[in-house]
Amino acid sequence: MLIKLKISRFDPEKDKEPYYQTFEVEADPMDRLLDCLNRIRWEQDSTLSFRMSCGHGVCGSDGMRINGICGLACQKLVRSFKEEVLIEPLPVFNVVKDLVVDLESFFEKYQSVKPYLITQTYPPDQERIQLPEQHQAFEEAIRCILCACCTASCPVNQNKETEEYVGPAALVRAFRYLFDSRDDASGERIGLLDHQDGAWGCRTLWKCTEVCPKEIPVTKQIGQIKKRIYESKHSEG
Ligand code: SF4
Ligand code: F3S
Ligand code: FES
Questions:
Q1: 25: closest CA among 44, 8, 12?
Q2: Atom 3 of ligand 3 has which residue's CA nearest to it?
Q3: How do residues 113-124 score in pLDDT, each as one tens digit?
């Protein structure tokens, strides 16, 4: 089948503003949009810029806005679309070139939640033991591939007045450590999250959960963080 891809183009060295360019690609219905983008780059315009690596929903690098909804180009089959597909860079972030965005602010926010295990004891000779049910508590959050689709889709992050909100991706990672039985820093973590640009910045708008390609219950996890913060204050009396 013939598919048209209307792609947002922008080269800061040449263009004052982004513009759209339409390419036609002969594709198999079972091809992925990422295959079409690669074909355009290899056969029609080698200057087309986008990120990709694994091609299989693992690396999180090909997040983009596809017909208005953020997702991974490697997870979208051509057969799901009618004749023309609109492809744009992730919103919220500045465009570096075409579909490549600057994710520095995304990773700064991610780092702000201390995305690593904090312990108060010396490492044991072997691994730190955890029961399967303790692992279950945060297992879904481990699926996160940091594709940024959730943060790019969150209306709070999209609003200039509230763009400092840490965002759902960072909160998923915060959840992952806050609910890990091996972590000893819940007090410190709660302090990092208990403010308007932290967990309370979330207004339960669900867009993050709707777009997450790994089907992580993002909104539910943010709700559990809020509950944990509330309970910690309540128990302080
Ligand atoms: Fe991507 Fe989902 Fe992780 Fe957000 S929570 S960064 S949408 S994998
Ligand atoms: Fe945004 Fe998701 Fe909360 S869309 S407001 S982070 S539920
Ligand atoms: Fe790695 Fe799509 S290319 S997730």
A1: 44
A2: 55
A3: 999 999 999 989
Mean pLDDT of 64-74: 98
| pLDDT of 44 higher than 70 | yes
- Cα(100)–Cα(97) distance, integer angstroms: 5
Ligand 1 within 6 A of CB of 150: yes
pTM of the model: 0.95
Please name the residues in contact with 192: beta carbons below 8 A apart, sequence gap of 6 or more. Answer: 112, 113, 114, 174, 198
Ligand 3 centroid–CA 102 distance in Å is 17
In this structure, are residues 98 and 45 in contact, taking their beta carbons and an 8 Å threshold?
no
pLDDT at 83: 80
φ, ψ at 194 (rounded to 5°): -85, 65
Give SS3 for 91.
coil
Phi and psi at residue 65, to the nearest 5°: -95, 120
